[in-house]
Amino acid sequence: MPPRRAQRWQPRRLRWWRGTQGGPAGDGEPARARPRRPATPLSNPGRQTRAVPTLFALGGVWGGSFLFIKVIVDETGPLEVVAGRLFFGALAVGAYVLVTRHKMIVTPSLVARVAILAMLANVMPFALISWGEQHIESGTASVLNAMVPIFTAVVAAVALDEEHFTRARLGGLLLGFVGVAVLTGTESLDVTDAAVAGQLAVVGAALCYGLGAVYMRSLLREQDPVSLTMLQLVLALVIASVALVAVSGTPDYSLSLEAWGSLLVLGTLGTGIGYVAFVWLIENIGSVRASLVTYIVPVLALLLGWLVLDESIGVNTIAGFLLIIGGVATVMRGQAPSRQRLQEPVAPAAVGE
Description:
Elements (H helix, E strand, L loop, with lengths): L13 E2 L29 H19 L1 H9 L4 H23 L4 E2 L1 H25 L5 H7 L3 H12 L7 H18 L8 H27 L5 H24 L8 H29 L1 H4 L2 H16 L6 H18 L21
Antiparallel strand pairs: 1-2
Helix pairs in contact: 1-10, 1-12, 2-5, 2-10, 3-4, 3-9, 3-10, 4-8, 4-9, 6-8, 7-13, 9-10, 12-13
């Protein structure tokens, strides 16, 4: 008789909830693989039409994030801000997951990969921005954060086959960044040692966001976006909490009512709901186009100041706005990628909407 072939070891798969390992009822049968998602072009006109209002709405939500961070760091440390916003963000996404009954299979390999994503897209940039805003103004931070699309485009051109670094895309990215610089002017930049350190911290956060957006794009080929976001925020909260206790000992959350309100809004909208919208954009229009939201943030922040606070708008504001819109339109209208997304089979999971 021929020798029996040794079975390859498979990691134990755990569900979020309901049932045990195996089939939907937990009967020990292997989970059936989800059918392959149909390949959706990144240049799909219908998805881009829906993405534009989502992009501007997310820009409005994130436009206030830098102001909220500035309010909070005046009363507590950067790591307290990171852990607090991740806590409220995870609660918001967790509530949505429970209501919509999203599920996923969690393996040690997936946890390790998502932990890397949580460090790149959440813990490190949140900490760098919170620390940086102790030394620079919130408006300066929002301008420097507009380097995210450029970093994302460079990383995506190297790491992703479906997102090419075309001349049109490069021109649109540079046009948008010039628009941000014209919009805000150079008077917000400071050359003191502390201010330069704060500015470099925010630039480092922008690089982390670029790396995280591209890495998220690769994981979305295999996982449900909402469940992936939930796991990411939970792991980010665990990492941030461990770092907070290790560095600060006892967390300091003796905040004023205004700071608590800022932390609640920052976590629920900016980190929770806003991040789900950002992941949807990455899945449907690509990491580079989704990162254009950081060009929109300063525009909407100035428009809100004009509408709500009666702040003045100069010629540079209008010129910068037109340059940014032109850059965003150029990148959104760019040449269709040569390969379709989601070419790999989706990991075995049961997703209930």
